[in-house]
Automatic annotation (TrEMBL):
This is Branched-chain-amino-acid aminotransferase. Pathway: Cofactor biosynthesis; tetrahydrofolate biosynthesis; 4-aminobenzoate from chorismate: step 2/2; Amino-acid biosynthesis; L-valine biosynthesis; L-valine from pyruvate: step 4/4; Amino-acid biosynthesis; L-leucine biosynthesis; L-leucine from 3-methyl-2-oxobutanoate: step 4/4; Amino-acid biosynthesis; L-isoleucine biosynthesis; L-isoleucine from 2-oxobutanoate: step 4/4. PROSITE patterns: AA_TRANSFER_CLASS_4 (PS00770). NCBIfam families: ilvE_I, PRK06606.1. Belongs to the class-IV pyridoxal-phosphate-dependent aminotransferase family. It holds the Pfam family Aminotran_4. Keywords: Amino-acid biosynthesis, Aminotransferase, Branched-chain amino acid biosynthesis, Folate biosynthesis, Pyridoxal phosphate, Transferase.
Length: 305
């Protein structure tokens, strides 16, 4: 079935029809991966559509750009307005937003000072890892592909080129019949999923891999750390060996797209009971409660459209 696209998109300062947001084939980013982007969700809340942690996502976009010496020609306020506009003008409620800034046409060298083009798209999106993933969990595998070492490509920048690694991990997992792949860092210790952070539960305590494990320190990861601690659940960031995946009482992946996805097995070994456990269910309740009013948003994470 052909992909259905929304009507409107924002590019370089204005809202335009989707089909008109084109770029030249010699754009730097297309050849060298020189783009930085964000993945953000909006939710249909009782008070109308709200974009989750928009300010924090845009902050990370500017941080990613800084790492690659990209000066965005728009302020964070302008991009926030663009995000609201693509939701509003397309009449979207629950959707996925994709702001992207990229080196455009204007030079062939690796260090060329090209113009920086910026676009923001939004489209309706359900659960990323399959319709039943949030409830029933997924079967994951450890990838034969490792994450890039920290002195090669900075994992802390959400840059287009990083996602060659993510594609190898995710495609291998799907080819082998798994729902998602989990990567080790160059140290051999656990890193993260192809596009998700990891939490393991041992004796009711949450463990997650540290920023030094070649992860993108996710905004959902931060949300869960905050919600858990607020709820009296201890959270520890630590180096984690691979085999702990098999021994955890509970295991989950989290990210803007994946939200909170339980993992029921890794490499064919059942995790815990093979079902979402007590801590995972509590985190899902607190997290999704933000969007239907059951969890009080004392942090101002919901930014109304
Ligand atoms: N790691 C990677 C590699 C990702 O692509 C993502 C998704 N952006 C995450 C982790 C989770 O980050 P966030 O919760 O900010 O979406």
């Amino acid at each position: 079935m052909a992909q259905q696209y929304p009507e409107w998109i924002w590019q370089n300062g204005s809202i335009k029809p989707w089909a008109e947001a084109t770029t030249h084939v010699m754009s730097h980013a297309l050849h060298y991966g020189s783009s930085v982007f964000e993945g953000i969700r909006s939710y249909a809340t009782p008070d109308g559509a709200a974009i989750f942690r928009l300010t924090d996502h845009l902050n990370r976009l500017y941080q990613s750009a800084k790492i690659y010496d990209m000066v965005l020609p728009y302020s964070a306020d302008e991009l926030a307005a663009a995000c609201r506009a693509v939701i509003g003008k397309n009449g979207l409620g629950a959707a996925y937003l994709r702001p992207v800034a990229y080196r455009g046409l204007g030079g062939f060298g690796l260090s060329a000072e090209t113009p920086i083009d910026v676009a923001v798209a939004a489209w309706p999106m359900g659960p990323y890892l399959g319709p039943d993933a949030l409830k029933n969990g997924i079967d994951a595998c450890v990838s034969s592909w490792q994450r890039f070492a920290p002195n090669t490509i900075p994992a802390g920048a959400k840059a287009g080129g990083n996602y060659l690694s993510g594609q190898l991990i995710a495609r291998e997992a799907r080819r082998l019949g798994f729902g998602e792949g989990i990567a080790l860092a160059s140290t051999g210790l656990l890193s993260e999923g192809a596009g998700e952070n990891l939490f393991l539960v041992f004796d009711g305590v949450l463990h997650t891999t540290p920023a030094s494990a070649s992860i993108l320190a996710g905004i959902t990861r931060d949300t869960l750390k905050t919600l858990a601690r607020e709820d009296g659940i201890e959270v520890i960031e630590r180096d984690i060996p691979r085999e702990y995946l098999y021994l955890a009482d509970e295991l989950l992946m989290c990210g803007t797209a994946a939200e909170i996805t339980p993992i029921r097995s890794v490499d064919g070994k059942q995790v815990g009971t093979g079902k979402a456990g007590r801590v995972t269910l509590r985190l899902q309740e607190l997290f999704f409660g933000l969007f239907d009013g059951r969890t009080h948003d004392k942090w101002g994470w919901l930014e109304q459209v």
